[in-house]
Specification:
This protein folds into five domains: about 5-140, no CATH class; about 160-295, Serine Threonine Protein Phosphatase 5, Tetratricopeptide repeat; about 310-430, Histone H3 K4-specific methyltransferase SET7/9 N-terminal domain (Single Sheet); about 435-515, Roll (SH3 type barrels), CATH 2.30.30.40; about 520-635. It has about 650 residues and is of the alpha+beta class. The protein has 17 helices and 28 strands. A hairpin with a 4-residue loop joins β25 and β26 (about 485-490). α13 runs antiparallel to α14 and α14 (about 565-585) runs parallel beside α17 (about 615-635). The relative contact order is 0.05. The strands form five sheets. Strands 1, 2, 3, 4, 5, 6, 7, 8, 9 and 10 form a ten-stranded antiparallel β-sheet that branches.
Length: about 650
């Protein structure tokens, strides 16, 4: 029997088609459970459950012992299969989440309550919308189970963190981790686990190790994570070639790890050993573990967060992790990349988004003088929309380029005077001729050769032209919707956006990609899996790939695309274009230009294959994928057998 299926039944984690799905409309009075409701139902729950399901054509009947402790741990056993599992359960953002020691991340589901056939039950779903639900007998039976929370719940001395008992500190850490009766606080949880760990409480040491691995409440540190994981189970391993042994332990026997958790704890340590990317961190972690043991868990290595909670919240608002704090002991520092960084340099204090070691995106910079800039950065320099507030009360709001006022902007003096207009190199060059900006932030396509100007007015210097069919990113438009602020779409080899702001162009020269690809239709028009324009663009691209792969080895005994295949694809391309253009009034010439731009950008490897002239498996794979992709479009638009291939 597939043991993953058993775990699914128990943990409600993995979506399997063999599990019965229940339509939403079959359930009445349906509502989602929040964190507090989930904790109330699960905390202290114990049961023996019989599961009777059909999995992969086989009827599976198993009995499961299920224990959810109020300290956030769980234990499950299946006696008939000599199988057991233990780990931790928490709630996160109104989800029920589980993790075993070998798991790197928690796996979560949403819980709902509702009535089916006048019987109240609990359901789970992998989506918050709850499109489908499966019932779990264990959870259904849980409805009437009384909560048996820890005796310490509500104890003001424990909740205040005043207890010095290692076990109480460990349990209280779980409360802060889960938000059980207190506000969720990973930092406080890690702090309590560290206090408990220093007294030798093995479970707290193990959890603290996971905190350092995940970077929850402490700075992520692989070496310290390995240290605490190893120390938590030292009695049962060999260190420096010598068995430690239970009798030689520095900790109380009741503080040692329970026997039913040792196997999973060992698996967790092995997981770290296999997944810590740097061998130097493994070596360091081993040395730290040895030192921590000799010091009887006192003054062991730590890496606490010094960022404020406010800073953490700012990072969360941006959807970014906090950049790691500098370690002066490291000879080479890793560049801050795709993170929210906070720090100080000789030029002032900063906080904002970093890419490849430089401020890039929205940031705040406070100068030693007291002046503050809040706005956009590009590759380490002030560029884009922003506000510069001066300590003397003056303020500039508008466009910047290379640290200078440049573009449409307004300068307000402390005495109320206002200078508004076009700025260049921090000088007002044209007053009161302004165009207010409205955010757009959408991809557009040039429908003609488009001129890019420094400012949103006719007559200003032309700095560049955009060819027809080129895609650009429109940052904003003027109030009268006659000018777009254009940014190029360009990424580096790792996928970071590095396109620069080019300038302003007439709105008449562009259409949004959605407008171009959707075309116009009537009530009788067929509905496709993608917009008709995108289908045609994809068909064009695959057609060109197939055509070039056919020409590449034409005349050879072994070819990528044979003549019969090429003839069929050409006939299908004519028919696809005819159907989509006529039915949706598409601009096929513009869509062809878009397709060729995408081909040149994304399929330059075809030219490399052609330059060698040598038959390769990679070339054959490219040809087969193009044929399959084109065939899928042809089947959808034309039908599977409506084109002659002779």
């Amino acid at each position: 029997m597939n043991i993953k299926f058993i775990i699914f039944i128990f943990l409600s984690l993995t979506s399997l088609n063999t599990i019965s799905e229940i339509p939403r409309d079959a359930i009445s009075n349906l509502y989602q459970l929040n964190d507090a409701q989930i904790i109330d139902k699960l905390s202290g729950y114990k049961a023996f459950v019989t599961i009777d399901e059909v999995h992969e054509g086989e009827r599976v009947i198993v009995q499961i012992e299920d224990i959810h402790n109020s300290d956030g741990s769980f234990f499950m056993s299946i006696p008939s299969y000599d199988y057991s599992e233990s780990g931790y359960w928490i709630t996160k953002n109104n989800k029920l989440c589980y993790k075993t020691p070998s798991d790197r991340l928690y796996q979560c589901v949403y819980l709902f309550e509702g009535s089916k056939n006048d019987e109240k039950k609990t359901y789970f779903s992998h989506t918050q919308n709850g499109d489908f639900y499966a019932t779990i007998d264990r959870i259904e039976n849980l409805i009437d189970e009384p909560s048996t929370n820890s005796d310490n719940e509500g104890d003001s001395s424990v909740l205040a963190g005043e207890s010095s008992d290692a076990r109480e500190q460990f349990l209280l850490g779980y409360k802060y981790y889960n938000g059980d009766g207190v506000e969720k606080d990973f930092r406080e949880a890690a702090k309590l686990w560290e206090l408990s760990a220093e007294q030798g409480y093995a479970n707290a040491q193990y959890e603290l190790g996971w905190s350092y691995w995940e970077g929850e409440g402490v700075n992520k540190d692989d070496a310290i994570s390995y240290m605490w994981m190893a120390v938590s189970q030292t009695e049962f391993f060999i260190m420096n070639g010598q068995p430690i042994g239970v009798n030689n332990s520095h900790r109380k026997k009741e503080y040692m790890m329970e026997s039913d958790r040792r196997v999973n704890a060992k698996d967790g340590l092995l997981y770290l050993h296999a997944n810590i990317p740097s061998s130097s961190d493994l070596i360091k972690g081993t040395g730290l573990a040895s030192a921590c043991w000799r010091q009887q868990f006192k003054n062991c290595e730590s890496n606490h967060i010094t960022y404020s909670v406010e800073s953490e919240n700012k990072a969360k608002e941006r959807g970014l992790p906090l950049c790691p704090e500098d370690d002066p002991s490291k000879m080479y520092q890793l560049k801050w990349d795709k993170c929210f960084g906070i720090g100080e340099s000789e030029y002032g204090k900063y906080e904002g988004e970093f890419i490849n070691g430089e401020l890039h995106g929205n940031a705040t910079f406070t100068y030693p003088s007291g002046d503050v800039y809040i706005g956009e950065y590009f590759q380490g320099r002030i560029e884009g929309q922003g506000i510069y507030s001066m300590v003397n009360g003056d303020k500039y709001e508008g466009m910047f380029r290379d640290y200078a006022f440049d573009g449409v902007g307004k300068y307000t003096y402390s005495d109320g005077r206002v200078e508004e207009g076009i700025w260049e190199n921090s000088q007002l060059i044209e007053s009161k001729k302004t165009n207010k900006s409205i955010p757009v932030e959408k991809e557009y396509v040039a429908i003609e050769i488009a001129s890019i100007r420094k400012q949103p007015f006719d007559g200003f210097e032309e700095v560049e032209t955009i060819p027809r069919g080129e895609s650009v990113f429109v940052i904003s438009k003027t109030e009268k919707n006659d000018w777009y602020l254009i940014k190029e779409i360009r990424k580096n080899f790792v996928g970071d956006e590095i396109g620069e702001i080019l300038g302003y162009s007439s709105a008449n020269s562009f259409l949004s990609l959605d407008e171009i690809t959707s075309g116009s239709s009537n009530s009788n028009s067929k509905t496709y899996s993608n917009s008709p324009g995108n289908l045609l663009v994809n068909a064009y691209i695959n057609y060109v790939i197939i055509k070039n792969m056919h020409l590449m080895r034409e005349g050879y005994a072994v070819v990528y695309i044979n003549d019969s295949q090429m003839k069929k694809v050409k006939n299908q391309m004519i028919e696809i274009e005819k159907i989509l253009v006529n039915e949706f009034s598409l601009n096929e010439d513009l869509l062809w230009d878009i397709a060729m731009k995408k081909y040149d950008k994304d399929y330059s490897m075809i030219d490399l294959l052609e330059s060698t002239g040598i038959y390769t498996e990679e070339g054959n794979r490219v040809g087969m994928i193009a044929l399959l992709s084109f065939g899928a479009i042809a089947d959808e638009v034309i039908g599977s057998s409506s084109i002659k291939d002779f």
